[in-house]
């Protein structure tokens, strides 16, 4: 039995995402995947988001936005005062929707699940927790929020949400953490599809010319945001060491904000600057061109308890990956699919050196990574996963919350 066959009339789902939507960055990309899958299944999807971003053209998707009292036009990744202001506004919009509409399931993303844990029982509506990361763990990066007392409060709140949700669907690598915090929770891991577009040789060569990179130079590509945990500074230091042995290397880092690009340009000039390109954020379709241009794909993270979406695209690309070892990535990456190293400058530089000096090994790792991606990261398996996840979430919802299976 699938999600749609459990009821005669059209299903209706509310997705609540406390982010800009749509923007080409992690969680909004994941949310768009889910919305696409649900609407493809014939589900009517209402999506409540921050008042920032572009409305995607998806049939059977209605996007509504919370109020914007301070007229904010940008919300940075991670915890910020802007996010707090808009979370408060999102709360009121969320409560209003629940008071006027009936949904088969509320899909609450990140901190919206904390709102759902309080609001949904009042309106007798089941919810699932879409958990991109552990919020207490993320907030430990803030000095004021890492004290023992604050962490105890945050962990207790997290356990309450995990136990109240009909199911928890989390970033790959987080399921063990969820089970440790809430042994009775129904939990599964996301397996997102990889993304790629048709890239022409002309587009690749045009990008090479734009970046002023010679044909004989080899390119190491980093794509993503420049937050501290991504390890961009460590990457640049390691690249400096690796380039002493391989002077043909160029490092391209894509995803900087305008402020970060400006900060880089104001740094004292160094010889290495001639071989590093800091590029602003690009549309997701353009990232496929950067990947096709690259010889090696870099993932130098210093931490993180979830798998970044770009890893699915990296693995499907057929390009060798150089990555730091992270427990969250282990379900996908191992020594047969990537050059792995410790999250230190010296270890990362050594991994770059090994990759650049071992073309046969690099090609073998890239092939194995791509084979794995083709087996596991297709669109149809993802739609089936979403269908199965929703079916199990409805089955797990308390009967008083749920008149759906009749």
Write the H/E string, N to C.
EHEEHEHEHHEHEHEHEHEHEHEEHHH
Which sheet architecture does the biggest sheet show?
A: 7 strands, parallel
Kindly, what is the distance between the CA atoms of the first and last residues, rounded to a whole number of angstroms?
A: 13 Å
**Low-confidence regions:** 400-406
Write down the overall mean pLDDT.
89
What do you see in this structure?
The protein is an alpha/beta fold and 406 residues long. It has helices at 26-40, 81-100, 112-119, 135-139, 148-164, 175-181, 201-211, 232-245, 258-265, 284-293, 310-316, 345-357, 359-376, 379-396, and strands spanning 12-17, 44-49, 61-65, 105-109, 127-131, 167-170, 187-189, 218-223, 249-256, 276-280, 296-299, 321-324, 339-341. The strands form two sheets. It has a seven-stranded parallel β-sheet, sandwiched between helices. Strands 10-9-8-11-12-13 form a six-stranded parallel β-sheet, with helices on both faces. Helix 1 crosses helix 14 (379-396) and helix 7 (201-211) crosses helix 10. It starts with 11 loop residues before the first strand and ends in a 10-residue tail after the last helix. 41% of the residues are buried.
Please write out the topology.
Layout: E1 12-17, H1 26-40, E2 44-49, E3 61-65, H2 81-100, E4 105-109, H3 112-119, E5 127-131, H4 135-139, H5 148-164, E6 167-170, H6 175-181, E7 187-189, H7 201-211, E8 218-223, H8 232-245, E9 249-256, H9 258-265, E10 276-280, H10 284-293, E11 296-299, H11 310-316, E12 321-324, E13 339-341, H12 345-357, H13 359-376, H14 379-396
Parallel strand pairs: 1-2, 1-4, 2-3, 4-5, 5-6, 6-7, 8-9, 8-11, 9-10, 11-12, 12-13
Helix pairs in contact: 1-14, 2-3, 3-5, 7-10, 8-12, 11-13
